[in-house]
Design a protein that fits this description.
The complex is a heterotrimer. By secondary structure, chain B is mainly alpha-helical. Chain B is built from four helices and no strands. Chain C is flat and about 45 Å long. Classes of the chains: A mainly alpha, B mainly alpha, C mainly alpha. Chain A binds chain B through residues 94, 96-98, and chain B through 28, 30-31, 76, 79.
């Protein structure tokens, strides 16, 4: 295993750690806003580290650019979604009917 | 490698079947729609694993994204109409 | 390298299946939607890892569509109730 592969595997492993931590937080934390906090960490850092770990092995500029585009889209979507869900939770409308 | 792929396939199959069962047996419309969106995501993964990226593309776009949004709007309208209905339960709800 | 990628995809799929429990239990609809969003992001990770590992590079495009449409469902979910009431 070369050095680049080692770094790449380490980055992917770190990203997996953030995903696992986010899932545990989503299951264990007591109220919706703290669960949202755990979720955004998993979204942004987890996927960012996985993409960073995959980048050295894309073998070309265009596939690498596509990976970075996926990453940027997930960052934008994650920020928007966290803001909207937090506002909806604070508003408190439309709770479970039964 | 093949054992890992086999484990991936097994976990994916179990998750998809369990989620499908939970989706069709859910009574409240909005919960069912949210579970259906999750089901669309998992089904796209199944198509991807079957080496059919075009079908996975269509499933992700239609099943999870646009269809989910439309069905969420429909479920919200159904809830509003049910709340606006007179307080004795309508006959189609009494049988559920 | 493909072994590492498939193993990582397996771990991500396991977190997806575990996070699904929150979508099943979730006390509020916001919790369910958060669980679905985490599933979407993990799904993107699974697709990105699986694409080079099983030799289907087009899976990156599927991940792109996942990322594009992740926001659509959330925005449809968080629309204000009054707007829908006026339309109805």
């Amino acid at each position: 295993m070369s050095l680049l592969e080692g770094i790449s595997a380490a980055l992917i492993g770190l990203g997996l750690f953030f995903f696992i931590a986010g899932t545990v937080g989503l299951l264990r934390l007591p109220d919706p806003l703290s669960r949202l906090h755990a979720l955004t960490k998993a979204d942004n850092l987890g996927l960012s580290l996985v993409v960073l770990g995959l980048l050295p092995h894309t073998g070309g500029l265009l596939p690498g650019a596509k990976l970075v585009l996926v990453w940027l889209l997930v960052l934008a979507a994650g920020a928007t979604a966290a803001h909207l869900v937090a506002k909806r939770t604070l508003r408190g409308d439309g709770e479970d009917a039964r | 490698m093949s054992a890992l792929l086999l484990a991936l396939d097994g976990l994916l199959s179990i998750s998809v079947v369990a989620l499908a069962w939970a989706t069709v047996t859910r009574r409240e419309p909005r919960q069912a729609v949210i579970l259906f969106i999750a089901f669309g995501l998992l089904l796209a993964l199944v198509w991807a694993r079957l080496r059919a990226p075009d079908v996975a593309l269509a499933e992700a776009a239609i099943g999870a994204g646009l269809g989910g949004a439309l069905m969420l709007a429909a479920a919200r309208r159904a809830l509003i109409q049910r709340d606006a209905a007179p307080s004795p339960a309508p006959p189609e709800e009494a049988g559920r | 390298m493909p072994e590492i990628q498939v193993a990582a995809a397996l771990v991500l799929l396991a977190t997806m299946s575990t996070g699904l429990l929150r979508a099943l239990w979730g006390p509020t609809p916001s919790d369910r939607m958060m669980a679905v969003q985490l599933m979407g992001t993990s799904g993107i990770g699974v697709l990105l890892l699986l694409g080079p590992a099983i030799g289907v590079p087009a899976l990156v495009d599927v991940a792109l569509v996942f990322a594009l449409l992740a926001a659509v469902a959330i925005v449809a979910f968080t629309r204000r109730a009054e707007c829908a009431a006026e339309e109805a």
